[in-house]
Amino acid sequence: MSDPVADLRDRTDVLSAALEQWAGQATATDNAAAQQTASAAVDAIDALLRDLYLLRGRLVQEIRRPGSAARSQVA
How many domains does the chain contain in total? Predict the structure, then answer.
């Protein structure tokens, strides 16, 4: 299984790059390019939200597991 923190960092980097490209398209006359970069940003946001949701589920399971170290840290 991959490292969830590293995955989040990778997704955040992809989102950052997509948003920078999209911001650069603000003055472009090519509307198709602007739409493509906006779509890439939306895709990156969707992937990031999916990864956050999965990570949240893993953390909740860890907290609820009897005798887990995470539970004692939260309490």
Answer: 1
